[in-house]
Design brief:
The protein contains five helices and six strands; from the N terminus they run βαβαβαβαβαβ. By secondary structure, the chain is an alpha+beta fold.
């Protein structure tokens, strides 16, 4: 029996404390003073017939730098239930060449994996405390994304 193609999200967080105060200042200058913190993470979407152990290996040895980054492997089901935060994923549009993802697929093949995987790279913005979707959309469109080449999804 052939396994269905599943989508897994690999969320990469920097161990190094990154200063986002300039972004918070920008958000506050737009009039959204309720937002107290933001976090920016690198994310990868992997779609294909591959098991979790192989995704763990790929994440550990290809997608992250173990000295400066940690990662979580998520499915669509366990992303949605984060209390108190607004979560946004930003991806390249399908017609835009995602060079990073092309090289990740080549790296996966180089590691010896034969499975066909579709890979997309993106970024995740986490706003705390949670704010309404209209506010999140406005901030994302003004500060974090280029609408010519990217789209976003509010989780």
């Amino acid at each position: 029996m052939k396994k269905d193609k599943d989508t897994t999200i690999v969320e990469i967080t920097s161990k190094i404390n990154t200063n986002t105060s300039f972004l918070l200042d920008e958000i506050h200058s737009l009039g959204f003073n309720k937002i107290k913190s933001i976090e920016i993470k690198k994310i990868y979407s992997l779609t294909g017939s591959i098991n979790k152990n192989k995704i763990l290996f790929i994440s550990k040895f290809l997608l992250t730098d173990p000295v400066s980054e940690t990662f979580k492997i998520l499915t669509k089901n366990n992303i949605k239930n984060l209390p108190g935060v607004a979560l946004v994923n930003i991806w390249y549009k399908p017609q835009v060449l995602d060079v990073e993802s092309i090289y990740i697929v080549k790296g996966i093949k180089y590691l010896g994996f034969k499975e066909e995987l579709e890979v997309h790279s993106g970024k995740q913005i986490v706003f705390s405390p949670k704010v309404d979707k209209k506010t999140v959309s406005f901030i994302i469109e003004k500060i974090f994304m280029n609408p010519l080449i990217q789209y976003y999804e509010i989780i």
